[in-house]
Specification:
The complex is a heterodimer of chains A (380) and B (121). Chain A is of the alpha+beta class. Chain A contains nine helices and 19 strands. Chain B has helices spanning 23-29, 76-79, 83-86, 102-106, 111-119; strands spanning 2-3, 8-13, 16-21, 32-36, 43-44, 49-55, 59-63, 68-73, 95-99. In chain B, the strands form two sheets. Chain B has a six-stranded antiparallel beta sheet with strand order 1-2-3-9-8-5. Chain B has a three-stranded antiparallel beta sheet with strand order 4-6-7. In chain B, a hairpin with a 4-residue loop joins strand 1 (2-3) and strand 2 (8-13). The relative contact order of chain B is 0.26. The chains are: A alpha+beta (380), B alpha+beta (121). Chains A and B meet through helix 2 and helix 7 of A and strand 4 and strand 6 of B.
């Protein structure tokens, strides 16, 4: 992790609980966070794929954009269609700088209430390590149009895996009506929730925002279910990698465009035509002519896992790219990686090499994701 | 058996030292998913990184506790890296080194000293 470690780490409402459970705590995004619990990364990873894993992601930034028309204002800093965002839905997007590089990736949604009332605000969840800068950029760029109301008094947890929905719905029956990327503001677990059916593992599940004062109680209520175990940041990283999902600061940064990153879906058609977002000139050009480099999924066919920074070479040994994140896949029992390569080498089945500790090892371009997503797109 | 502060163990048989990582190191690493052992014939100096052990999360160097020539590597670990967790101080050994200077071995910690060192961590 690249961020500096401040002298005093921040805590989440769940920090003491993690320590009491024997978690190994590490500095992450300025917080003391559990990298693993007693089970260890491998077991936690596999448990999430088979049952339900519970993650403390309270380090992430939660905020409401409040103003006369926060949806149209937000379009000035992202390339997605937010004016057209339906009530009760959330959307993945990227905060862009003026050269089309990614300042952060985020979720933005319009929670609806059980009485059908639509929230006028846009609810944002951004990366913990980026949140101070993100909210400053949004405030500066949208000054006079929106207020950024940071929700520092709320915790955020994610429950992920094939049994996650049943666990949550036992407590919050109304959550059963939600499909992937739905978001609601509703009562549940005896408190008020902002709950979305989404996550960062490729599995079905929910992300649940609760008042900080209720976090320990809700966390332990979920863990009282035998199907649920706490999962640290180590397995969160290996799970998102298997799901082919990028990690900011590694696969994405201020030099990387959404087109290079394989996130063209986040640049909506009407916005491409209007070219009215930061860095539109570069992004529209890359859409038309292709970017100079593209993200691919690599499977290491033999040898050690290729990790961030490992060079990627063509079959003749010419260095053509770099691994942006990589590791061992507990499900595939092989090294997997996200890498940048020239577009000519992005074809599934293309043979490449990854250079690990000076040794070339064979690798192959494979489809994304490495492990199939299991999102629930319709209910009933 | 002798130990280093980097959590390697060494067992001497004549002038051949068998080297591995301690149970403490294996527990700290978590599930071992890949091991890279040194090539036979390689000359190593005490303190050199001479093997690599990888968990899901990270790759870590293993340092040669003594100087000498690698005379055997544990080929079993390529197909069964989990042996490092299951039997770190037995079947999970990494390599055998023909000792260049027995004084290096004598200078390492014995088990009591290593246990006392672990208690300070």
């Amino acid at each position: 992790m690249s961020q500096n470690t401040p002298d005093v780490l921040k805590t989440t409402p769940l920090t003491d609980d993690h320590v009491a459970r024997g978690a190994r705590m590490v500095p992450f995004a300025g917080y003391s966070m559990p990298v693993q619990y007693a089970d260890g990364v491998m077991k936690e990873h596999l448990w999430t794929r088979e049952h339900a894993g519970l993650f403390d992601v309270s380090h992430m930034g939660q905020a409401r954009l409040r103003g006369v028309s926060p949806l149209s204002a937000f379009e000035e800093v992202v390339p997605g269609d937010f004016i057209g965002l339906a009530a009760g839905k959330q959307k993945y997007s990227v905060l862009l700088n003026r050269t089309g590089g990614i300042i952060d990736d985020l979720m933005a949604g319009r929670p609806t209430s059980p009485d059908g009332r639509v929230d006028d605000d846009l609810f944002l969840v951004v990366n913990g390590a980026c949140k101070d800068n993100d909210f400053k950029v949004i405030e500066d760029e949208l000054a006079g149009q929106v207020d950024v109301v940071r929700l520092e008094d709320r915790a955020l947890m994610a429950i992920q895996g094939p049994e996650a929905a049943a666990v949550v719905q036992a407590h919050v029956p109304a959550a059963a009506d939600m499909v992937f990327m739905d978001i609601r503001a509703m009562p549940g677990f005896g408190t008020d929730l902002i709950i979305s059916r989404s996550g960062y593992t490729g599995e079905d599940g929910y992300e649940i925002s609760v008042p900080a004062s209720e976090a320990v109680r809700v966390w332990n209520l979920l863990l009282a279910d035998d199907r649920v175990r706490p999962i640290g940041l180590g397995a969160r990283d290996s799970l998102r990698l298997e799901a082919g999902l990028p990690l900011y600061g590694h696969d994405l940064d201020e030099t990387v465009s959404p087109i290079e990153a394989g996130l063209a879906f986040a640049v909506n058609k009407n916005r491409r035509e209007q070219r009215d977002f930061p860095g539109a000139a570069r992004i529209v050009k890359e859409l038309a002519e292709g970017p100079a480099r593209v993200k691919v999924c690599l499977r290491v066919l033999e040898g050690a896992p290729a990790r961030e920074g490992a060079e990627v070479a063509d079959e003749s040994g010419n260095v053509v790219g770099v691994v942006t994140s990589g590791g061992y896949s507990p499900c595939l029992k092989a090294g997997i990686a996200l890498a940048f390569v020239p577009p000519a080498l992005k074809t599934v089945g293309a043979r490449l090499q990854v250079i690990v500790r000076g040794k070339p090892q064979p690798a192959e371009v494979v489809p994304s994701p490495f492990v199939p997503h299991r999102y629930v797109r319709k209910v009933g | 058996m002798r130990f280093t502060k980097d959590h390697e163990w060494v067992e001497l048989d004549g002038d051949v030292a068998t080297v591995g990582i301690t149970a403490y190191a294996a527990e700290q690493l978590g599930d071992v998913v890949f091991v890279e052992t040194p090539d036979v014939g390689k000359a190593v100096k005490a303190g050199d990184a001479f093997a690599v052990v990888e968990s899901v999360k990270a790759a870590s160097d293993v340092y040669a506790p003594v100087s000498g020539e690698v005379v055997e590597a544990n080929g079993e670990l390529a197909g069964a890296p989990e042996t490092v967790n299951a039997a770190p101080e037995a079947g999970g050994w990494f390599a055998k080194v023909k000792l260049a200077d027995k004084a290096e071995y004598d200078a390492l910690m014995d088990r009591d000293a290593y246990e006392a060192f672990l208690a300070t961590l």
